[in-house]
Amino acid sequence: MNRPDLTGRTALVTGSATGIGRGLVETIAECGADVAVHYHTSADAAGETAETARDRHGVDATVVRGDVTEPDAVDGVFETVEKELGPVDLLVNNVGDFVPTHWEEIDWKTWNRVLDTNFNATYLCSKRALGPMREAEYGRIVNVGYASAEKGLVSPTNFPYFVAKAGVLMFTRMLAADTQQAGITVNAVSPYVVETSDAFPEDLPRDRPAAIEDVIEPVLFFLGGPAYISGQNVAVDGGWLPETV
Which of 146, 161, 192, 228 is catalytic? Predict the structure, then answer.
């Protein structure tokens, strides 16, 4: 796939110290954008990710800490990025907790943490990014969903995650419609099982989980793609046709 030229852009990827987020940061930096590596607890890993982006790709990179479920912390994250790199042009809402536990066994704090990190963090970061994006008449937002969320499939295990990801896709469509005159696109990329996942089903599409690269490619398309494509969701599921989850 031809990689987009993101030179001159500033990207913020939430939850990007490790895993898919780290892969996204490194690839976005390879495409020429300055990058902000966001983390909440993984300080050392975040520093290594930013250093890799600077050393390998010659872009500016910064590390920013914050709990993106808290409005004041989100303001602080964006203020730091704006001060050190400039306004955020490219936002990937990647952060989100996953708890593969039966819903009755999930305690109240964890239940809300799953909802907050997956849905409310997406809302808060997108809302904070919109002001500068509207002013610049340019912005790209990509939200990370889940492959069965559009189908409304749920399971007693990890139920709040399914609820939150369904909300993320609804929010994506709403925000795309609300920003259609602003030069902003809002899309979603929804993996099924990725090589960094916490749990793996016995039967996987194509006999393997998605590689991080499989998830990165559609994200890059949306970040560097046409201004007319908005409100869309790409399921990265290897052709999975679920009846249950």
Answer: 161
Confirm if 172 and 222 have CB atoms less than 8 A apart.
no
Domain harbouring 98, CATH code = 3.40.50.720
Hey, how many other C-beta atoms are within 10 angstroms of the C-beta on 180? 15
pLDDT (tens digit, 9 = 90+) per residue, 159-169? Answer: 999 999 999 99
Is the per-residue pLDDT at 29 higher than 70? yes
- Residues 6 or more apart from 239 whose CB is under 8 A from it? 205, 206
- 161: annotated active-site residue: yes
DSSP assignment of 72-87 equals HHHHHHHHHHHHHT-S
Distance CA 38, CA 21 (A): 9
Q: Coil, helix or strand for 233?
A: strand
CB 116 within 8 A of CB 37: no
Residue 243 has pLDDT above 90, yes or no: no
The domain of 61 spans: 10-236
